[in-house]
Structures are given as structure tokens and as C-alpha cells.
TrEMBL record:
Organism expressing this protein natively: Arthrobacter echini
InterPro entries in the cross-refs: ArsR-like_HTH, HTH_ArsR_DNA-bd_dom, HTH_Metal-responsive_Reg, WH-like_DNA-bd_sf, WH_DNA-bd_sf
Protein name as it appears in the record: Winged helix-turn-helix transcriptional regulator
Highest taxon listed in the record's lineage: Bacteria
One BP annotation, GO: response to cadmium ion
Gene3D superfamilies the record matches: Winged helix-like DNA-binding domain superfamily/Winged helix DNA-binding domain
GO MF, one annotated term: DNA-binding transcription factor activity
Species lineage: Bacteria, Bacillati, Actinomycetota, Actinomycetes, Micrococcales
Pfam families associated with the record: HTH_5
UniProt-listed SUPFAM superfamilies: Winged helix' DNA-binding domain
Domain HTH arsR-type: 9-101
């Protein structure tokens, strides 16, 4: 029984990290871009519509969560998903979210208060 509780605690921690990474639109765009192909910070910054400094902070977060890895290539660094299964999980999650509904009809004050209704 104890072992199962520890396993559940570890799993919930992993899901919380994944949820935190996805909670920011810029990080979500980066993960979706990397799902398609590895990329470089300058390309990712342009795609996400943020400064390179801002992107650097987001990439640090994603590295810290264990979702992306930096691969040195001479003087450049290429970023890619830490595991191909992550790309598959993102695709599956998008499929589920699309079935549930593309938008959220929650009252605005629900989001402002940091609560979720759906």
C-alpha cells in the first residue's frame, strides 16, 4: 500500500510539472514547434513572437521540467524534446482537448481568481 502511495505522489508531481509547462502560451508554442522538429532559439523566439531573452527564460523552465534538452552544435545550441513520447503525448492531449471543446466558457472572474471551472 505504501509503495502505491509513493508512486501516485511521484506521478502527480510529474503531471504537475507538465501542466505548469503547458500553462504558459509561449512554452506551449515552443513544445508544439519542437514536436514537429528540433529548432534553434532564434527560430523559436520568432515563432513564439517573443524576445530571445524571454525565450531563454522559457527554455530554462522547460529544461528544468525535463521536457526539452539542449544539444550543442559547435557555437550554436539546438533544442529538441527530451523524449519522442512527449511529442506523442502532446498530440494525444490535443486530440482529447479538441474533442472536449476548443474554447472555455468559464466566467472571466474564475480565471482572474486563479480557479478553473472546467
Amino acid at each position: 500500500m505504501y509503495h502505491r502511495g509513493v508512486e501516485t505522489l511521484a506521478s502527480s508531481s510529474v503531471l504537475a510539472r507538465f501542466g505548469y509547462a503547458l500553462s504558459d502560451p509561449t512554452r506551449s508554442r515552443v513544445l508544439l514547434a519542437l514536436r514537429d522538429a528540433p529548432s534553434y532559439p532564434s527560430e523559436l523566439a520568432e515563432l513564439a513572437g517573443v524576445s530571445r531573452q524571454s525565450l531563454s527564460n522559457h527554455l530554462a523552465c522547460l529544461r528544468g521540467c525535463g521536457l526539452v534538452v539542449a544539444v550543442p552544435e559547435g557555437r550554436r545550441v539546438r533544442y529538441e524534446l527530451a523524449d519522442r513520447k512527449l511529442g506523442e503525448a502532446l498530440t494525444a492531449l490535443l486530440d482529447v482537448v479538441a474533442v472536449v471543446g476548443p474554447g472555455c466558457d468559464c466566467p472571466a472572474d474564475t480565471h482572474d481568481a486563479g480557479r478553473a471551472c472546467c
